[in-house]
Amino acid sequence: MLATLAQEMKSENPTAIDIVAPDANAEALRGRRGWIISDGVAGHLAITRGIAQTLGLASEVKPVAARALWRHLAPFGPADPRQLTALLAKPLPEIVLGAGRQTVPFVRALKRAGAFAVLFQSPRAGLSSADLIWAPTHDGLVGPNVIATPTPPHRFTAQALHALRETIPPDIAALPSPRVAVFLGGPGAGYAYDAATIADFAAKLAHIASQGASFLITPSRRTPGALLAAADAATEHAPRILWRGLGENPYANFLAHADLLIVTADSVNMAGEACATGRPVYIFTPPGGRAKFRRFHATLEAHGATRPLPSPPSGLTTWTYEPLQSAERVAAEILARWRRFRSTMSRQ
Q1: Angle, in degrees to the nearest 10, between helices 225-235 and 195-210
Q2: What residues have CB less than 8 Å from 68, skipping those under 6 apart?
């Protein structure tokens, strides 16, 4: 079956999704001052940095780590006054971006100070916490200042993927097709990685390897050693690149140059980024998982972007779908509302 898939991949138009439209958002806001309020969570930074890049902001990450009392009160209570005072002592940005409940008090305070404020994910403390709120469609959040998309915004826009695909790294080019990217998450969001689950995943990778695939494998910060070791052993005799955490992570090039992708269900960000490629995405789902994650994956599958990783995976194939790109849509909404915000402020 994978031999057939390799032939299908060779006959595809490799530039089918590489249609690059002018980025009006970046031109309108390029170089303007922006702050990313960060709680240090990698997934939150992926979202906010992706939007800052799409908007063309001259963005600066402002880490926040509130002391115990204020951390406990977030997102409903005030910002830690010590850190907030330090932020307010500097020239305010035009746009402030935040993701995660620990950032909400700071974003809310900066909004009151005059910055245009955007929050990502439900703030739980009320829609008035920001001028604009992004939430995933599966959260079901609605409101006059809410924009919802099926996948989170990120930096892998159509333009970014096009640029990555202009040049393929020699070590990736040397791998035979189909090149299968494997993005490993880990325990979280209610998903469990016990020994039986890890063994099941490894058996599926080994079966794919036996059919002639090559692999592009990268873990995340949450990947347990046992899961990475199992993926390593299952693919050790196949052509592959396995990133072990040393040096620069080749994730971006893996994303751009894979023929198909396998993502563990616990990572909304990695699944969303995979679905931006227009390439087939298989989801491996461990036991458990929260209801909103199940809704998220049901949305991706209904769109035609993903399918469950079969067991045994003898039926791997390729298919097409409209790439899920959220960053441009969210950036356009930010731009429109920021312009109205500036117009209102100028009249006051």
Answers
A1: 20
A2: none
Residue listed under structure tokens 């993903």 = 306
Local confidence band at 27 (pLDDT 50, 70, 90 cut-offs): low
Give the pLDDT score at 9. Answer: 44
Structure tokens at 291: 């209801």
Q: Pick from 143, 85, 127: which is nearest to 110 by CA?
A: 85
**C-alpha span between 103 and 130 (Å, rounded):** 11
Instruction: Label residue 14 by pLDDT band (50, 70, 90).
Output: very low
How many whole angstroms separate alpha carbon 214 and alpha carbon 221?
Answer: 23
pLDDT at 210 over 60: yes
User: How many residues does this entry show for the chain?
Assistant: 348
The average pLDDT across 176-205 equals 95
- Tell me how far apart the alpha carbons of residues 169 and 3 are, in angstroms, rounded to a whole number: 23
Q: What is the signed CA dihedral for 300, 304, 306, 308, rounded to 10 degrees? A: 110
* Class of 31-154+328-347 in CATH: alpha beta
Q: Which residues contact 193 (CB under 8 A, 6 or more apart)?
A: 186, 187, 224, 226, 227, 286
The pair of structure tokens assigned to 176 is: 């035979």
Residue type, 274: A
Residue with the two structure tokens 């050790």: 236
Distance of alpha carbon 85 from alpha carbon 83, whole angstroms: 5
**Hey, which residues does 148 pair with through a beta bridge?**
135
Tokens encoding 211: 């059919």
3-class DSSP assignment, residue 115:
coil
d(CA 7, CA 266): 31
What is the SS3 assignment for 211?
A: coil
- Start-end of CATH 3.40.50.2000 domains in the chain: 31-154+328-347
Q: What is the CA radius of gyration of the chain?
A: 21
CATH number for the domain running over 2-18+158-308:
3.40.50
DSSP H or E stretch at residue 215: strand 214-219
Decide: residue 174, CB within 10 A, 0-12 exposed, 13-18 middle, 19+ buried: exposed
pLDDT (tens digit, 9 = 90+) per residue, 239-274? Answer: 999 999 899 999 999 999 999 999 999 999 999 999
